[in-house]
Amino acid sequence: MATKRMTPGFSDQVMGLVKALRNDAPDCVASGVVDMSTGMLLSYETVDNHPPEVLDLLAGATLDLFQGRTVVMIEDIFKERRGIESDQHFFQEILVNSENLTHLFIRMSEQQDVVAVVVCRKSVNVGMLFAQTRRVVREYGL
């Protein structure tokens, strides 16, 4: 008797993505997935304990980076000048360096309101960080 293989649900995919990012991104100390349409941090893994209010703010900060008022204005101006009529966003990846950490935010290709977040030690090889994170994101293709 053949066994029907169930395709994982969205929440299973999100948790799998977070785990894969945490395991595969070099020098990774945290990973997560943000849904910008709801303003929620869907899932995360971290080596440290963080205050809940900081984790709550991550989703809002991610939304500001990718779709803040000024960012949307810039996108709209470029779309108008180029004659583009699309909901596709221009900003797909954002790298932020803080004093001790490197944060990489990557918008999912299929669901533009979902962003994968990887936090690594500042000593990370940025080229490897991009390569590994892009590979994992492509595999999950949310």
Explain what this protein looks like in three dimensions.
With 142 residues, this protein is an alpha+beta fold. 42% of the residues lie in helices and 25% in strands. The protein has 4 helices and 5 strands, in the order αββααβββα. The protein has a 5-stranded antiparallel sheet with strand order 2-1-5-4-3, with helices on both faces. β1 (28-35) and β2 form a beta hairpin. The longest helix is centred in the middle third of the chain and has 16 residues, at 52-67. The chain starts with 9 loop residues before the first helix and ends with a helix. Mean pLDDT is 90; it is low at 1-6.
List keywords for this structure.
142 residues; alpha+beta; five-stranded antiparallel beta sheet; 25% strand; globular; disordered N terminus
* Strand/helix succession: HEEHHEEEH
Q: In angstroms, what is the radius of gyration? A: 16 Å
- Helix content bin: 40-55%
Secondary-structure-derived class: alpha+beta
Distance between the termini: 32 Å
Beta-strand percentage range: 15-25%
The total of beta strands comes to: 5
How many helix segments? 4
Residue runs with pLDDT of under 50 for 5 or more positions = 1-6
The overall pLDDT average reads: 90
Strand order of the largest sheet: 2-1-5-4-3
Q: Assign an overall shape.
A: globular
- What is the quaternary state of this protein? single chain
Largest sheet: 5 strands, antiparallel
Protein name: Roadblock/LAMTOR2 domain-containing protein
Organism: Streptomyces fuscus
